[in-house]
Design a protein that fits this description.
Length: 165
């Protein structure tokens, strides 16, 4: 793409625009979607900001309470736990991929999640199988989605016992 300077327009060339600070860029990123500190640092580094400027921006965002990994991780875990049909294991992997520390993620797991996991597994089965389907295929599908073996057995047994739709 060729940039030509138009008469009276100093913004026609990308080199003429003033570069955003790392803090401004970070605020723009956070305005679109909540980020972990690690992912925010990665995105700022990809945009070409230097480590020192990134550190100052992160420090300021933490100080202003715009960046808090513990709270963000807890919010995202709660949302995925309540609103998805993913297993707890899948949720944990997803959050770690988003840059949250594994310890923070583990702290979000409720002590007794068997009933929720079973309900999530039943939702997965109902979307893909009929109750009369091969139970080994159902179990393999749930296993591939990260469900625990006790949850898999309970869900498949309950689903197979349910009436056909």
């Amino acid at each position: 793409m060729k940039y030509e300077r138009e008469e009276g327009n100093d913004t026609a060339s990308p080199k003429r625009r003033s570069k955003k600070t790392a803090l401004m860029a970070a605020v723009d990123i956070l305005a679109r979607q909540e980020q972990s500190e690690k992912k925010l640092r990665e995105k700022l580094a990809r945009k070409g900001y230097e480590d020192g400027e990134i550190q100052r921006a992160v420090d300021r965002l933490v100080e202003m309470h715009y960046l808090n990994d513990a709270e963000a991780c807890a919010r995202q875990f709660a949302f995925l736990y309540e609103e998805s049909r993913s297993s707890v294991r899948q949720i944990c992997v997803k959050l770690m991929q988003r840059g949250f520390d594994s310890g923070l993620v583990r702290d979000c797991i409720p002590p007794d999640s068997f009933e929720r996991e079973t309900q999530a597994a039943l939702r997965v089965l109902s979307l893909r199988f009929k109750p009369s389907a091969d139970q080994q295929k159902m179990k393999a599908n749930l296993y591939s989605k990260g469900f625990d073996s006790s949850v898999i057995r309970a869900a498949v047994d309950a689903f197979a016992a349910s009436p056909e739709h």
